[in-house]
Amino acid sequence: MRRRTLLASLPVAMGAASAAAQPRWPTQPLRLIVVYPPGGLSDGMARLLAERLQAQLGVAVRVDNRAGGGGSVGLQALARAAPDGHTLAYSAVSPLTLRPHLQADGTGVDPLRGIAPVAGVMFTPVLVVGTPAFTGRDFAALLAQARARPGALRWATSGIATAGHLVLEQVQAGAGVRVTHVPYKGGGQQLNDALAGQFELLSTNVAAAQLQHVAAGRFTPLAVGAPQRLDVLPQVPTFAELDLAQANVSSLFGLYAPPGTPPALLDRLNAETNRALAEPSVRERIVASDNLPAGGSRAGFARRIDEEWMANRVLRSSGIRLE
Questions:
Q1: Residues 6 or more apart from 9 whose CB is under 8 A from it?
Q2: What CA–CA distance (Å, rounded) separates 44 from 22?
Q3: Does the chain have fewer CB atoms within 10 Å around its N or its C terminus?
């Protein structure tokens, strides 16, 4: 897929807002599709955002969890929804920036073709930990074991074409090692299986539950994708420090609308999202979970999606395909 295809598939007005009169909105409850199962950090943040939007707009905002396909199941449901501003989706950008590189030619549905970016919500560092099944104590041990027994280490992520999966592939490419990918449909069952030692390695969010297990010694923190070391994990190096700069990525989560949503409605949705993110209780909750608030314009969010798509072309040579 070429860059021109990507930009053409983003139905977002990059210039001035439409001069047409803004339609009356909302006229009914909103549906917020969350592309993750209930119970994880991403689901919790989506529900917090739904609460704020409900208070601001004066109508109910109902959360609809649609997990699966690394986020594509929920985004495809969004693509089929009416473009009237009453259906939104909450997802990381990875289903848009990673899946197109893995999609087999002529098969499946590319969710990128039917998504209108609304606003970024938060940046989440990617943390790699060793589970009780991992016998090493640091990232050097991970690489040593992977080189000694190619494919023996099992590395779980929240799904194919997620940020955690990208980290895995960048580590394999950059360090010249091979591990076995164990993709899940989200974070809930993945965390339980990690604690049970069903696999050795886990790409996860930096969240309270995960940090609690690190503090208790159940998980061994190995590396983090972030601009700098995290205050909550000062002993854990970034991937950049480990000479794996391409793996030093964070997840950007945001809101999306169906294709064909009028620009005036997209502008209103963007404004309401930024208003919610400016609420002190929302910002405090995001920061307390060791994430960073995002926000900003529709154009800026669309531009970030395009930049990540260009950077993620490493997956084209990974040999992975989505059938």
A1: 110, 112, 113, 115
A2: 31
A3: C
Closest CA to 179 of 211, 159, 202, 197: 202
Q: What is the pLDDT of residues 39-87, one digit of tens each?
A: 888 899 999 999 999 999 999 999 999 998 778 889 889 999 999 999 9
Two tokens, residue 257:
């609308």
* Integer Rg of the chain from CA: 19
- At residue 162's C-alpha, the angle toward residues 140 and 236, to 5°, is 30
Instruction: Indicate yes or no: pTM above 0.70.
Output: yes
What pLDDT, in 10s, does the model give residues 261-299?
Answer: 999 999 999 999 999 999 999 999 888 888 888 999 999
Strands 250-257 and 87-92: antiparallel
Q: 30 forms bridges with which residues in the sheet?
A: 61
Burial group, residue 303, by CB count within 10 angstroms (0-12, 13-18, 19+): middle
Quote the crossing angle between the two packed helices 208-215 and 188-195, to the nearest 10°.
10
* Alpha carbon distance 221, 211 (integer Å): 9
Query: Nearest-CA neighbor of 93 among 187, 4, 163, 38?
Result: 163
